Amino acid sequence: MLIKRIACCLGLAAAAALTPAHATPPERLLVIKNHRFEPAELKVPAGQRVMLVVHNQDATPEEFESHALDREKIVPGGAKVVIYIGPLRAGRYGFYGEYNPKTAQGSVVAE
C-alpha cells in the first residue's frame, strides 16, 4: 500500500512539473495619441484571454469604453493601464474614448 501511495505521489509531482502554473496571456499594446487609438484595429487570438496594455501618451486623461467587451477604464494622461479581455469568439468588438468619442475609436478583431 505504501509503495502505491509513493508511486501515485511521484506521478502527480511529475505531471505538475510539466504543466505551467499560470500561462501568461498574450499581450497587446494600444496607444492613445492625439486623442486617437493606435492601432485603430487590434487583432487578438480568438478563444484566448488577452492582456491589453493601454498607454495614454496624451497629457489629458481618456476613458477606454467598450459595451461589446463590457469594459471601461480611465487612463490618466501619460499613464499605462492593463485591461484583460476575452476569451472572445471570432468577430469584431468596438471601443471608443469616452472623452473624445469622435476621434478616439477602434475595434478589437478576434480571429
Would you kindly provide a written description of the structure presented here, covering whatever features stand out?
The structure is a single chain. By secondary structure, the protein is of the alpha+beta class. The chain has a single domain (23-110), classed as Immunoglobulin-like (Sandwich). The protein has 1 helix and 9 strands, in the order H-E-E-E-E-E-E-E-E-E. The strands form 2 sheets. The protein has a 5-stranded mixed β-sheet with strand order 3-9-8-5-6, with no helix packed on it. A 4-stranded mixed β-sheet has the order 2-1-4-7, with no helix packed on it.
Short overview:
This protein is α+β, with helices and mostly antiparallel strands and 111 residues long.
Kindly name the structural category.
alpha+beta
Find the CATH superfamily. Answer: Cupredoxins -  blue copper proteins
Principal-axis shape: globular
Number of distinct beta strands: 9
Strand composition percent: over 45%
Helix content: 10-25%
Q: List the strand order in the largest sheet.
A: 3-9-8-5-6
Based on CA atoms alone, the radius of gyration comes out at 20 Å
- The low-pLDDT segments are none
Mean pLDDT: 88
